[in-house]
Amino acid sequence: MASPAVGDSQMLISPADRIYVAGHRGMAGSAICRSLVAKGYGEAGGGALLTASRSELELLDPVAVYDWFATNKPDVVILAAAKVGGIHANATYPADFLLDNLKIQNHVIETAWRSGVRRLLFLGSSCIYPKFAEQPIQEEALLTGPLEPTNAWYAIAKIAGIKLCEALRQQHGFDAISLMPTNLYGPGDNYHPTNSHVMAALIRRFHQAVASNAPSVTCWGTGTPLREFLHVDDLGEACVFALENWCPSSDELQYLNVGTGVDLSIYDLAHLVAKTVGYEGDIQWDSGKPDGTPRKQLDVSKLGSMGWRAAIPLAEGLSNTYASFKETLASDALTSNT
């Protein structure tokens, strides 16, 4: 099926659909749920927004996944569930990151296909691209070079998920698409002191420095790597947009980048976070810690040509993220949401 133009009368998803969001409690999944509800999907549209906590559905258990699909009969599936973490977590638990993500993906994607689900959206990650990919990174760069070692295990699992979606479309006509978001931040992030991503780690570190009146804060690496950051509410909007407007043919790319198309150095990010939380002490850098990929800016022109753009500027997004962090801190809930 060729990609319909934006605004095409062809309905790829409907407010009457039963839409399952796997990973609805995570940062990405909760944002996707907010966007779906805001656009009239779920009970208000005559359909249903289906969710299941880990205690209700263990995605690592293939039998449980099959039984849940048989009972709940979703029409559309959004796979946002994953085991995620930063450089330290990936280095410490490589087998967990590979095995758990492969199991979650395989169980949900295969069961969705076998159960007659009409559309599936799989969330990948920008870490799938080679460490030294030409910048900005186009989707065609996938598998053209070696991965960044500090997150290779997670990346390999995500690549497998993309390829499984492609294979099912090619062999069986299953309507599965994938989006590759850049670094995410926003409400619902994981602020674990060692297993979080860079934005969340910096917010927590500088907040604690203000609270303790620390004279200096030490950040990992040299501060020179360049990163792109997307507010998770923008990702939620992008997911709904893609489900409504994008259905590639079997010979087209079946995964698209999602980001802002703008990056900044970790050094500049650290100073922006410090300013946001009100920290005025010294910022030092531990060059003995890994930097990761030197630059990772996505080419977002393909999704942009369809009419979608990120809407939340970094300074604005960081401000509301810090407000959310303080609410989370007040509730004593600074634990992993994955």
Number of helices: 10
> Assembly type of the shown chains?
single chain
Task: Determine the structural class based on helices, strands and strand pairing.
Answer: alpha/beta
The main pleated sheet reads as:
6 strands, parallel
The global form is: globular
Over all CA atoms, what is the radius of gyration? 20 Å
- % residues in beta strands: 15-25%
Q: In terms of per-residue confidence, which ranges show pLDDT below 50 for 5 or more consecutive residues?
A: 1-9
Strand order of the largest sheet: 2-1-3-4-5-9
Separation of the first and last Cα atoms: 34 Å
Q: Can you count the beta strands?
A: 12
Topology as a string of helices (H) and strands (E): EHEHEHHEHEEHEEHEEHEEHH
* Average residue-wise pLDDT: 92
Helix content: 25-40%
Describe the structure.
This protein has helices at residues 27-38, 62-72, 87-92, 94-114, 152-172, 198-212, 232-245, 266-277, 301-305, 314-330; strands at residues 18-22, 48-50, 76-79, 119-123, 176-181, 183-185, 216-220, 226-231, 255-258, 263-265, 282-286, 295-296. The strands form 3 sheets. It has a 6-stranded parallel beta sheet, with helices on both faces. Strand 4, helix 5 (152-172) and strand 5 form a beta-alpha-beta unit. 40% of the residues lie in helices and 15% in strands. By secondary structure, the chain is an alpha/beta fold. The longest helix has 21 residues, at 94-114. Helix 1 (27-38) crosses helix 7 (232-245), helix 2 packs parallel to helix 4 and helix 8 packs across helix 10. Mean pLDDT is 92; it is low at 1-9.
